[in-house]
Amino acid sequence: MQVHQYDVVIVGAGGAGMRAAIESGQRARTAVLTKLYPTRSHTGAAQGGMCAALANVEEDNWEWHTFDTIKGGDYIVDQDAAEVMAKEAINAVLDLEKMGLPFNRTPEGKIDQRRFGGHTRDHGKAAVRRACYAADRTGHMILQTLYQNCVKHNVEFYNEYYVLDLLMVEEEAFREDGTAYMQKRVAGVVSYDLATGELHVFQAKSVIFASGGAGKVFKTTSNAHTLTGDGMGIAFRSGLPLEDMEFFQFHPTGLAGLGILLTEGARGEGAILRNSEGERFMERYAPTIKDLAPRDIVARAMANEVREGRGCGPNKDYVLLDLTHLEPEHIESKLPDITEFARTYLGVEPFTDPVPVYPTAHYAMGGVPTNVETEVLQDNNTTIPGLYAAGEVACVSVHGANRLGTNSLLDINVFGRRAGIAAAKYAADAEFVELPENPEALVTAQLDGLLNSKGTENVAELRKALQETMDANVQVFRDETSLKSALEVIESLRDRYKNVSIQDKGKRFNLDLLEAVELGFLLDLAEVMTTAALHRKESRGGHYREDFPNRDDENFMVHSMSYRDHNATTEGIAGIRMETKPVVFTRYQPMERKY
Amino acid sequence: MSTELPEPPSKIELKAGVGGGGEIPTFNITLRVRRYLPETTAEAYWEDFKLTMYGTDRVLDALHKVKWDHDGSLSFRRSCAHGICGSDAMRINGRNRLACKTLLKDLDTSKPITVEAIKGLPLEKDLIVDMEPFFQSYREIMPFLISKGHEPTKERYQSVEDRERFDDTTKCILCAACTSSCPVFWTDGQYFGPAAIVNAHRFIFDSRDDAGDMRLEILNDKEGVWRCRTTFNCTEACPRGIQVTKAIAEVKQAILSRTV
Lengths: 595, 260
Hints:
The complex is a heterodimer of chains A (about 600) and B (about 260). Chain A is α/β, with parallel strands linked by helices. Chain A contains 16 helices and 20 strands. In chain A, the strands form 5 sheets. In chain A, strands 1, 2, 6, 7, 8, 9, 16 and 17 form an 8-stranded mixed beta sheet that branches. In chain B, helix 2 (about 130-140) runs parallel beside helix 5, helix 5 runs antiparallel to helix 6 (about 210-220) and helix 5 crosses helix 8 (about 245-260). By secondary structure, chain B is α+β, with helices and mostly antiparallel strands. The longest helix of chain B is centred in the last third of the chain and has 16 residues, at about 245-260. The mean pLDDT of chain B is about 95. In chain B, the strands form 2 sheets. A 5-stranded mixed beta sheet of chain B has the order 2-1-5-3-4, covered by helices on one side. A two-stranded antiparallel ribbon of chain B has the order 6-7. Chain B folds into 2 domains: about 20-130, Ubiquitin-like (UB roll); about 130-260, Fumarate Reductase Iron-sulfur Protein, Chain B, domain 2. The two termini of chain B are about 40 Å apart. Chain A: Keywords: Electron transport, FAD, Flavoprotein, Membrane, Oxidoreductase, Transport, Tricarboxylic acid cycle. Chain A: InterPro entries: FAD-dep_OxRdtase_2_FAD-bd, FAD/NAD-bd_sf, FRD_SDH_FAD_BS, Fum_R/Succ_DH_flav-like_C_sf, Fum_Rdtase/Succ_DH_flav-like_C, SdhA/FrdA/AprA, Succ_DH/fumarate_Rdtase_cat_sf, Succ_DH_flav_su_fwd. Chain A: It catalyses: a quinone + succinate = fumarate + a quinol. Chain A: GO terms for molecular function: succinate dehydrogenase (quinone) activity.
């Protein structure tokens, strides 16, 4: 085992991690630990755009953007955080342009902007052009630009280092009212070098988690194979809460059967959804902004069309994204990648034929709770000195119950930047926290357990069963029966997981071993998501309970906070404690959410 | 700029059989994988796997099937699984492609489908190579915008035409399919290779960048663009459809017109 020392360690090299690294790398000795080469990160798969009220093509202002974000999140967004994000969005876009990002341009040479779901003029009057974009590969351009600037600033990367544990110490501290509590402090992380199988402990004054999402708990997902929620899982196992895990976004337009993302920007450019009768059904569900309603509403409408028998295809299990009324040159210049996806993977020519689509698991609104300074919370009122989180792994919460399209690329840039600055600033004055004795012991035991297991269970089989039950029971529509049945499966899989074994016993590039570790995170997170979903007996944003179809502000206008607690039981699930955290309001009162 | 379009009709007649459909056919394949497990055997060897696959499956699905159902030690990189992250470039039937973008049905399934690691980079295990030399070349061409003069308060302006000038080379996902298909790179690992030149092109032809001359100087090196023999392997290999050879030619041209 090797021990390294850095002022700042960043876990993850997607948009949030690299945006943080650009800031912290220039201020403090920084290492970025990433389980992939940085340019492989899933930020690169984002397509449509990044919203900011530049008002380059029509009137707009950041206050409208704030309102849209809050309403889009069904009012469970922390309004102070949404304000920060919408306000700083403008500089976030301009910063990227200055770093070299090749945005599409207006005839005058300004950054061009297009429409996106839920982004409106003057508090919902009409769709507004707010999304800055680079064709339909905005995420790719952001990832490349950030990596380029990391190269420029000589950021130190440890590629294919899997962070598997967070090292913290606890000490007794006293609140202002004199009560004692256990204050956590961060000491570093334990990582596994894929190439050699060696463990590396990184002692750090500040640690930033920017490790992305957990879409692989679902079968049909736009997420990469590697998005297994490692960061959330590590935090949860370390005794930190996870916030709002019941809110998961299903993106309306995944390629049917495959889940591959087709950007909402397609609808922003004029594409529409149709059912088997050729009907533009969104006119019924969201009369004002129709196909540009927020994702939760569109995804539910699609699923509803299918279950009422108006789905297409031999199994009537998808709807159609129709681009055929658009000019081919327009599609070719604005949406080249997604049209290629349709051709490559489904053999459909989108110029002449509509494309089969169905909702695909896309984004975790919840995650590791932070405040607007990206400091991680150990409970509602207590931050952990030196520990930060940004991007999909975190819950600030700017996305509430439903994230608006483009706000994730914005989130990673705004809060990634904030995290990098804050972590470096903290490290400048802080001392290293002493590493615990045998800091790698937990990870060694876990890996040795898997390597030496003589168990009979197969990782791929358990993962498949998990993903299938999540798709069947915890997707767009949920109710008590479906959630309980998912939990039953999850509990049995967690049990069987204790008995998994792997075939590859080697040290070098043992991805067999890491898939087993990742499955452990997926199982933990699926359990939390489903338990939180069962606990929230209302419908809000992406969380729709058929047995509680209305929003219930009286009882549920609160964030959920799930803790690993071996003395607690929630909804019949042992080991989870569920608490709540108040939503921060500034100036927007909850209203009925109509579009 | 986005154009204003008339509202599409609320209802249309759909063509019969729209969206394709019918039962997805299954078929049998032999996947012939070049294995290299340095911890157990010194030499690389071929191993065949007989698999039943579905009509929309890709080579990556076949590799996953082997790993998940037959042999967990089979090692390969992959992430996004739809041609964006650049993890899974490999030699499939002798040609560099992304496993996640190569549909099995588009290959000749009557014969074994061969899969091996990309060439020219140090082999680590099975389909995994050491990518460091590749990224080293990339870093050497200064792949970041260098702009002199005052930073504007808002964005820099760029005309639609100027933006279009380097659009093609912004598509690069650094998968190394081009560089590792280049015969010059196979014999001379010092050659920058197509991907680094593509990324230099992306900045040399960006009207906002002021360091074109420096990059041209770097690529005028004996291991630079002049090693390119215009075999077009790189262009054929690029999973993003970048006109790689054309980009290299444009860089060559820029060096000549600069030095003349």
